[in-house]
Amino acid sequence: MISVKCPHCHVGLKVDEGKIPLDITFFNCPKCKQPIPVSMLSLGKGQNMPESDTVLIRPIKTTTGRLSVIANDDTPEQVFSLYEGLIIIGRKSNASKAQFGIVTADKSMSREHIRIEVKKDAKGGYKHYLSDNNSKNNTLYNSNYLKHGEIVVLSNNDEIVIGHTVLRFNE
N or C: which end of the chain has fewer CB within 10 A? Predict the structure, then answer.
């Protein structure tokens, strides 16, 4: 829920942003019936903000993310599309039970190094939860080591380092 103030009658409203259609440009105030402009928030660097009376709404992410393996001397570039459920990721091996086996010569990467759990949230979008899977050499998440049992929610462009291999999460 977000707080919105009508620019016409100044009544305070609580709006469930998950129920606002993505193609909407305004909605009518329930008190004064005047239009309240809406703009979906997908602003990057260098973009201008809309008019100050415009309500900015962050659209719900209705697709699962993907994990890109950044190429290095030991590892070719690879991309894995995530899906709902629990996914174990590690070095590809016949002895591994990982759903996503990374083709690599990086022996510091465990065969079942990390876990990503993709869950649908109450608004119909997806959340991606990262944790270390008791790996031998730990997991770096945005330059910080994950503690034993720690779970973090992934965001667009997060960097994960397993062994000497860099992974990038994208929504």
Answer: N
pTM, two decimal places: 0.65
Cβ burial of 165 (10 Å; 0-12, 13-18, 19+) is buried
Distance from C-alpha of 114 to C-alpha of 78, rounded to nearest angstrom: 16
What separation in angstroms does the CA of 42 have from each of 58, 68, 94, 137, 171?
7, 22, 42, 37, 13
Cβ atoms < 10 Å from Cβ of 137: 16
Three-class secondary structure assignment of 47-69: CCCCCCCCEEECCCCCCCCEEEE
Give CA–CA dist 54/154, Å, rounded: 29
CA 109 to chain CA centroid, nearest Å: 23
> What is the CA angle 62-68-72, rounded to 5?
170
The β-bridge relationship of strands 100-102 and 85-91 is parallel
Choice among 40-49, 60-69, 144-153 with the minimum mean pLDDT: 40-49
- Single-letter amino acid code for the residue at 39: S
